[in-house]
């Protein structure tokens, strides 16, 4: 099989040092008509500068309302192999850890029932299996679920939560981000597989303010590790950084956003009361500086991409929360957020957009959080504000 | 053939099954890490145990063949343990130091790109494009390939003032963190959609279509049982097309890409930032998008030549000022750069202090 189409445009993208997606599609095209027709259709897109996919259709597995995204070519007569080309989202393990044995099992089944193409991974975090037919969906689900692998989320539902590598391999993780991610994924299985929300809801867990999973930009509920007490300093290690050529004054002290550090050429001092825990000094001097020992997470809410009324970054709602297994306090908080959103949102309205419409006060009251200065960059500028009866007591 | 018994709502397999013994033993007890080269690092635990990581580029679209090849190498050098990063790189988790160099040698022989660690470019987060999406107005994978071929040395060896995070989104839905990336490509439309009125009435929910428009440009038209679009208000976002396919937003001759810069997600030094518009339009030039590649390279190299050590692209621009950014990069400033949407009030200058 394979080689049904001449692909002079795509062949140009097999040149050069970066790994080529065209080469990957061609490898699969040697075995499946699907991948071969995919290659032919993409070449046509390169010639005409437009895509040939229809809007997603509703397909899935019995009892689930998500996890599969229907995809059909708009040129099924020309490219019959991709008349159906559905995406299956497999829920990834926390931290994207695998064994070769597990991955091989997933690939063997995929080669039997799909195109042989994958995304490792999709933008939300799922292991994405790219291209299969409607009739193969139940078979795939039985094969995978019987071996311990379930589908991820899609549509107006809890989406597959994801997280950074966390305490598995990072000294900066203030929380067990992989355990939290796994725990909330298990807790929300029903909401993940049976869309019943106004729109999508994403949860991401980052171990520290470096935010390697972009929680603050890409999750309705952003959980970001932090600490409360003093940074621990190893002055001998500070000296080693200086001896190795680091300019501690210009690279560390002068770049501290709160001007809370001093260095006299020998000793590094931190006025911890002024530190805002941004992670710059710790990230640059990881052997010399360690976070404090009172660790937990900041909870932020609302971020999303531009559709519909502009992008949002998440807002701080709970400045500090201790997070220990089984993370019941986090689940309670998330439940309250989702309930308020579900009760108040229009269809296709994300929680951040709803807060913009309704105001932060009803949201904070719904999650039973008091107003605190950590929630704002600055207080309001205009003299227009609401009073409630409860404010007069 | 009978199928195995399906299970529902079991969730993902527990991650512990996939952790190498050195991670299980030292979970939560890592002391520090050191970057050893552009694509290798070592994590050292409080116990003194070490874990070597070798990071390798991937095009994100992977065939089962390549995944099996990666599995073979993981078994040969890492007892089968590997992971992927949030930016779609592959990481080999090597517990035995003596296996690092042989792994690197095999990767080199097989032409894998090792890199992406430290103050460099990592893999480009990107979307499906023409490969698999109905709303794509460019091909994400093709742009990524062309850009990374050109910037390959910044992935493997060359260093920059800080890490630079690139992203490509094939439409404004932005299924990647384009809105908070150092340098990013977002594909855009520039023409008011063309409506197939006969089909709208049959296929679409009119109220949903009307409310999908962020600028209130769409009104119902009871006469045609369709909708009308106020052309002066339309900003070509394509959200109406998403909910109502007969509203055709694609225009292959006019669609193209915009370049945005200066975003970040970390809170280090300065607050997380949105990316802002640098170049409003570059035409689609498959297969290798030479103008887009050149534009990104120009911004990257001007940043590299002018930023202080540890400054991200957005931090450098905010220090020197956007007027300097346009001067240094030679990018023309246009009406499209001035916000006339959600953020106008916040983005216009209200100070008498600025540069020329």
Structure description:
The complex is a heterodimer of chains A (393) and B (356). Chain A is of the alpha+beta class. Chain A folds into three domains: 8-145, Alpha-Beta Plaits, CATH 3.30.70; 162-227 and 295-392, Sulfite Reductase Hemoprotein, domain 1 (2-Layer Sandwich); 232-290, Alpha-Beta Plaits (2-Layer Sandwich). Chain A has helices at residues 8-11, 21-29, 33-48, 100-113, 137-145, 177-187, 189-193, 215-218, 235-243, 248-253, 280-284, 328-344, 351-358, 360-366; strands at 68-69, 87-90, 97-99, 117-120, 127-130, 162-163, 203-206, 221-227, 232-233, 261-263, 268-270, 289-290, 295-301, 315-321. Chain A has a five-stranded mixed β-sheet. A four-stranded antiparallel β-sheet of chain A has the order 1-2-5-4. Chain A has a two-stranded antiparallel sheet with strand order 9-12. In chain A, strand 4 and strand 5 form a beta hairpin. The longest helix of chain A has 17 residues, at 328-344. Chain B is α+β, with helices and mostly antiparallel strands and 356 residues long. Chain B folds into three domains: 15-109, Alpha-Beta Plaits, CATH 3.30.70.3340; 125-189 and 252-347, Sulfite Reductase Hemoprotein, domain 1 (2-Layer Sandwich), CATH 3.30.413; 194-248, Alpha-Beta Plaits, CATH 3.30.70.20. In chain B, 29% of the residues lie in helices and 20% in strands. Chain B has a five-stranded antiparallel β-sheet. A five-stranded mixed β-sheet of chain B has the order 7-8-9-14-15, covered by helices on one side. A two-stranded antiparallel ribbon of chain B has the order 10-13. The mean pLDDT of chain B is 96. The chains are: A alpha+beta (393), B alpha+beta (356). The interface between A and B is large, with 124 and 117 residues. Strand 4 of chain A pairs antiparallel with strand 4 (61-63) of chain B, so a sheet runs across the interface.
């Amino acid at each position: 099989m394979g080689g049904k189409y001449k692909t002079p445009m795509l062949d140009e993208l097999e040149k050069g040092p970066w790994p080529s997606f065209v080469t990957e599609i061609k490898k699969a095209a040697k075995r499946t008509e699907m991948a071969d027709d995919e290659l032919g259709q993409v070449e046509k897109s390169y010639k005409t500068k437009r895509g040939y996919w229809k809007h997603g259709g509703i397909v899935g597995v019995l009892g689930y309302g998500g996890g599969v995204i229907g995809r059909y070519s708009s040129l099924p007569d020309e490219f019959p192999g991709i008349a159906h080309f559905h995406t299956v989202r497999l829920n990834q393990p926390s931290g994207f850890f695998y064994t070769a044995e597990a991955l091989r099992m997933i690939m063997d089944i995929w080669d039997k029932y799909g195109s042989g193409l994958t995304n490792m991974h999709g933008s939300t975090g799922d292991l994405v299996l790219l291209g299969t037919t409607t009739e193969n969906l139940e078979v795939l689900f039985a094969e995978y679920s019987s071996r311990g692998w379930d589908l991820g989320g899609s549509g107006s539902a809890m989406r597959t939560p994801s997280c950074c590598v966390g305490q598995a391999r990072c000294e900066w993780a203030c929380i067990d981000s992989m355990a939290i991610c796994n725990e909330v994924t298990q807790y929300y299985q029903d909401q993940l597989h049976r869309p019943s929300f106004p729109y999508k809801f994403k949860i991401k867990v980052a171990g520290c303010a470096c935010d390697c999973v972009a929680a603050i930009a890409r999750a309705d509920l952003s959980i970001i590790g932090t600490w409360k007490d003093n940074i621990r300093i190893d002055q001998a290690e500070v000296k080693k950084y200086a001896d190795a050529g680091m300019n501690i004054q210009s690279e560390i002290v002068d770049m501290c956003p709160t001007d809370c550090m001093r260095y006299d050429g020998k000793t590094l001092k931190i006025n911890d009361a002024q530190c805002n825990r941004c992670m710059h000094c710790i990230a640059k001097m990881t052997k010399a500086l360690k976070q404090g020992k009172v660790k937990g997470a900041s909870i932020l809410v609302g971020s999303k991409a531009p559709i519909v009324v502009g992008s949002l970054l998440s807002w701080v709602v709970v400045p500090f929360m201790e997070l220990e297994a089984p993370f019941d306090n986090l689940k309670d908080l998330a439940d309250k957020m989702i309930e308020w959103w579900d009760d108040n949102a229009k269809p296709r309205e994300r929680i951040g957009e709803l807060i913009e419409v309704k105001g932060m006060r009803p949201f904070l009251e719904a999650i039973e959080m008091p107003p605190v200065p950590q929630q704002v960059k600055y207080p309001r500028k205009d003299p227009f504000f609401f009073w409630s009866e409860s404010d007069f007591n | 053939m009978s199928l195995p018994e399906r299970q529902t709502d079991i969730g993902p397999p527990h991650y512990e099954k996939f952790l190498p013994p050195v991670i299980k033993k030292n979970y939560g007890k890592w002391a520090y890490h050191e970057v050893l080269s552009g694509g290798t690092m070592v994590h050292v635990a409080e116990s003194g145990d070490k874990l070597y990581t070798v990071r390798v580029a991937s095009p994100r679209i992977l065939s089962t063949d390549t995944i099996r090849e990666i599995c073979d190498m993981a078994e040969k050098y890492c007892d089968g343990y590997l992971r992927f990063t949030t930016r779609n790189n592959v990481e080999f988790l090597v517990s035995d130091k003596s296996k690092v160099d042989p792994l690197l040698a095999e990767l080199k022989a097989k032409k894998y790109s090792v890199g992406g660690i430290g103050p460099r470019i990592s893999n480009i987060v990107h979307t499906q494009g023409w490969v698999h999406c109905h709303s794509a107005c460019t091909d994400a994978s093709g742009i990524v390939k062309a850009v990374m071929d050109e910037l390959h040395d910044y992935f493997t060896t060359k260093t920059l003032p800080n890490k630079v995070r690139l992203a490509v989104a094939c439409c404004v839905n932005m299924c990647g963190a384009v809105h908070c990336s150092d340098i990013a490509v977002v594909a855009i439309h520039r023409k008011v959609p063309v409506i197939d009125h006969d089909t709208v009435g049959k296929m679409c929910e009119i109220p949903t279509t009307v409310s999908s428009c962020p600028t209130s440009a769409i009104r119902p038209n009871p006469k045609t049982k369709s909708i009308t679009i106020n052309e002066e208000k339309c900003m070509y976002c394509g959200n109406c097309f998403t909910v109502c396919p007969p509203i055709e937003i694609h225009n292959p001759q006019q669609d193209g890409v915009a370049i945005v810069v200066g975003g970040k997600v970390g809170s280090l030094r300065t607050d997380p930032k949105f990316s802002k518009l640098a170049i409003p339009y570059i035409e689609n030039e498959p297969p290798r998008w030479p103008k887009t590649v050149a534009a990104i390279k120009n911004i990257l190299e001007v940043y590299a030549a002018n930023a202080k050590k540890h400054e991200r692209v957005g931090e450098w621009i905010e220090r020197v000022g956007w007027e300097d950014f346009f001067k240094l990069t030679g990018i023309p400033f246009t009406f499209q750069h001035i916000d006339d949407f959600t953020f106008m009030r916040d983005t216009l200058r209200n100070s008498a202090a600025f540069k020329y």
